[in-house]
Amino acid sequence: MAAPEPEALDTARSRAKDKSPWNWLLFIPIVVPLIPAFFNADSPRLFGFPRFYWLQLVWILLGVGTTTLVYQMTKKKRGEH
Amino acid sequence: MWRDHLTEIIVFTLLFLLVSAMGFVAARWRRPQDMAHLDEWGLGGRSFGGWITWFLVGGDLYTAYTFVAVPALIFGAGAAGFFAVPYTIVIYPLVFLVLCRLWSVSHRHGFVTPADFVRNRFGSPILALLVAITGIVATMPYIALQLVGIEAVLKTMGVTGDSALARHLPIIIAFAILAAYTYQSGLRAPALIAFVKDSLIYVVILVAVVYLPYKLGGWGSIFDAADAKFQGTANNPNDGILLNANNQLQYVTLAFGSALALFLYPHSITGVLASRNRDVIKRNMSALPAYSLLLGLIALLGYMAIAANVKPLPGAKEGSVDGNTVVPLLFDQQFPDWFAGVAYAAIGIGALVPAAIMSIAAANLFTRNIYKEYLKRDATPAQEANVSKITSLVVKVGAVACIVFLDPQFSIDLQLIGGVIILQTLPAVALGLYTRWFHRGALIAGWVAGMGLGMWMLYQIGNPATGKKHFAGSAFPLSEFGFDTKKTIYVGIVAVLVNLVVAALGTLVLRAAKVADGPDGTTPDDYFADEGDPRVSTSADSADSAREPVA
Fold first, then answer.
1. Crossing angle of helices B289-307/B326-334, nearest 10°?
2. How many cross-chain Cβ pairs, A to B, lie less than 8 Å apart?
3. What is the pLDDT of residues B78-96, one digit of tens each?
4. pTM across the whole model
5. Mean pLDDT over all residues of chain B?
6. Interchain contact, B286 vs A47, CB within 8 Å
7. Closest residue of B to A76, CA-based?
8. Distance separating alpha carbons of residues B39 and B32, to the nearest angstrom
9. Is the predicted ipTM greater than 0.95, yes or no?
10. Is B235 exposed, middle or buried (0-12, 13-18, 19+ CB in 10 A)?
11. Which of A36, B32, B104, B176 could make a disulfide contact with B529, Cβ separation 3.0–4.6 Å?
């Protein structure tokens, strides 16, 4: 299986995309939800939810926002899809 | 008495039959040219796009366990049970890049299982065998856990009996049907059924989180009722609607450890490898947290059950209670019969999708890494598919046996033990995607150390409340290590850290002693390949080329 030239270029380009500095943002939604000091309290309540519950549900948005941002910033610009 | 639940039983049965029919029809859906190939039967042709993958992986990760056991945990212990939420938040950013690498290298070499990858990457059939066996053993209790979900529903509907056989007959029938259509349609069956399952679950939960608080006096009073209940239980200092100083470490390590473990499970990897390209995976990492929101809301059903004064049904043993019945009972008590039937069907079908995928994944492991490796090296793709189909039947029989002979009360604990076990494949599978530094012998030593320690720690954990002396949970008291503290920590994290240390030290020793290492069958480029890349295998040639390292 010898690799033809154009393909080597392709993979080199996708590797460059994989190494994007945007990827470092992914650490935020990994670390933040694992710090109980942020959410382990009752007040303030929101719609009757203690902070423990509503804030951890808000972290879901943090996760979605970060992964979406990283995906958009690192996806291939050739854009055939 | 089942007669009081007739409407529920009828709705449940109708939906169950509809889904069963879909399972059989699925063989014709996105019809392959040649079904007698493991890529088709076991990975759905590796062709699923964004939506199908979302439903499939969502239905695969958020199982009947979600619906039944997490609220049961919240009902019993409070805040500690909410770990499922941070767990399913950190998982996606954690594996965002890792899974893409796994997808790429698997497609280029035609890998079907994580053990396939390990065999090629580290040139070690023994390490691959360990990974395969770990996967199969960890998956078995997980499948059993799905049955617990169905059983809780059946129990609530009064479908039960005096003898063990009569009590389990409905589950045996349900699993026989599941086994039949999985045998015929492979991964296409759960993929198609997942649409129905997830739609039902979303409807049921959205209705539940709007309608139930309205009936129970609002969210504020639901939390207050839970708080009052936990204040009244003086004998259990670790429950409550907030964490205390002693269980925070357990909460965080359990969430993180479970997240590390999730995508090491063979069934999660099966779902990922079935997707069409890297983009599908990345988009899903952003979209799958929709299920986490659902999970958080489902978890809170446990508090609603407290506020609604639900009393769980008796368990298998005299004097025990079956906490898993709280959500079905809550639905039975609060919803009109027909809607409770829909909710039960959602739980029941919710058990079938992951059970099907898990049995497929376990069967693929057996076929690729035991049968083909040790029993019949020259197996054709058709023979592989056939062996996998038969193994998937055997796996389901094993899961049913698990449930008939074990107390369902321990379902979560069983699954947590599975999590500790599967975590021990982390250095070889997950780190192996990034580095070839580890020596194969050291990885084996690390696995042995991690497994040994993990099992010992689990053995030490008892639960005074239930009188269980061993394997009663995954929260290990740090005082056992000689620390002067009441804090507890998740067993899996400790075990995998020791595993890593042993693997690293072992690598240094083996390298210094110049012990021969295995060849690496992959190249750095393999980890970035994408759909359309000329060297990404098509399903026609992949299974056979997989064994040959690409030069």
1. 70
2. 128
3. 888 899 899 999 988 888 8
4. 0.86
5. 83
6. no
7. B279
8. 10
9. no
10. exposed
11. B104
Residue of B nearest to A63 (CA): B89
State residue B444's pLDDT score: 93
Residue B240's DSSP bridge partners are B78
Residues of B in contact with A10 (CB under 8 A): 533
CA-based nearest distance B297→chain A, Å: 9
Q: State the Cα angle at B521 between B362 and B526, rounded to 5°.
A: 85
pLDDT by residue (tens digit) across B12-51? 888 888 888 888 887 777 776 676 777 787 787 787 877 8
Question: With left for phi above 0 and alpha for psi between -120 and 50, is residue B315 left, alpha or beta?
Answer: beta
Return the closest-CA partner of residue B523 out of B493, B486, B549: B549
SS3 B465: coil
Query: How close A48 gets to chain B, by Cα (Å)?
Result: 4
**Two tokens at B260?**
């590390």
**Are residues B85 and A7, on separate chains, in Cβ contact within 8 Å?**
no
Q: Any idea which architecture B47-411 has in CATH?
A: Up-down Bundle (1.20)
- Residues on chain B touching A47 (C-beta within 8 angstroms): 219
**Least CA distance to B291: which residue of chain A?**
A60
Q: Fill in the amino acid letter for B371.
A: Y
| Model confidence pLDDT, tens digit, residues B198-229 | 888 888 888 988 898 888 888 888 888 888 88
Q: Looking at the partner chain, which of B100, B533, B551 has a beta carbon nearest the beta carbon of A7? A: B533
**What is the distance in angstroms between the Cα of B393 and the nearest Cα belonging to chain A?**
37
Question: Is the distance from CB of A22 to CB of A73 less than 8 angstroms?
Answer: yes
Task: Produce one character per residue of B48-77: b if its CB has 16 or more CB atoms within 10 Å, e if not.
Answer: bebebbbbbbbbbbbbbbbbbbbbbbbbbb
Task: Please answer whether residues B350 and B149 qualify as being in contact, where contact means their C-beta atoms are separated by less than 8 angstroms.
Answer: yes
A7 touches chain B (CB under 8 A): yes
Question: Residue B377's CB: how many other CB atoms inside 10 A?
Answer: 9
Q: Nearest CA to CA, how far is B168 from chain A (Å)?
A: 37
Residue type, B330: L
- The token pair at B419 is 């999590």
Query: Do A81 and B279 make contact, defined as CB atoms within 8 angstroms?
Result: yes
